[in-house]
Design goal:
This protein is α/β, with parallel strands linked by helices and 253 residues long. The chain has a nine-stranded mixed sheet with strand order 1-2-9-8-3-4-6-5-7. Strand 1 and strand 2 form a beta hairpin. Helix 4 crosses helix 5. The longest helix is centred in the last third of the chain and has 12 residues. It is globular.
Amino acid sequence: MSEPYYSDEHVTLWHGDCLDVLANLPTASVDAVITDPPYNVSSRNGRDGTMPSSLRRKDGTHRKLQRDFGDWDREWNPAPFLAHTARLLRPGGSLIAFTSEFTLPAYLDSGLNHRNVIYWRKTNPTPAFRKLYVRAVEMAVFQVNGTTGWTWNGGGYIPNVYEGPTVTGFTVANGQSRYHPTQKPLWLMSALTAQHTIDGEVVLDPFAGSGTTLVAAKQAGRKAIGVELDERYCEAAARRLSQGVLDFGEDAS
């Protein structure tokens, strides 16, 4: 592989296709894969999601709700990524991967030991402007490589629901905290990292985006490996990681 896009004593970030990068990582070298891959949920109906006048900004401008995230969120096949995950996870290593109803069947057929579905209930979901349900819940699979030995820091049991806000703000340019259209909040990725890893373990995020999982791992004292295809988000992740323990780009959530 070429030189990493960013590296420090805790984190290595690669710019490229995750399948190419993962193919070059050693077998059983990762303790946990904590990631947010494509969901195949992008809008295909051509609607632009313009906000109604009642929800426009005070200056009269409005933004478009992002329902079409691009080709990367259409017809994505999780199977090749899952095959690499099964090889890279140590015996007992954990996979935490966010997903949707459109890609869940591939995870259930991954060959890994399916333990649970985890839910994130958003306290501030994006509003809908038609007569339909608002997507206020996202789900993630919890799977392990084998039947024993996974890291579990929740005692006997904990509920499979995490509750809290999404990332607020729209762009880095206006001083807000959103770097990526599907960015997960730092509090959530920190909670998952704390629950499923221990100090010094290696966390892999093959769909690193703006680096939230990598920041969470670094703050928790874990080692982390990230891969991101889009250089814009590699740059955002590198900026966040170079700030050290505090992630000044994240809001109070």
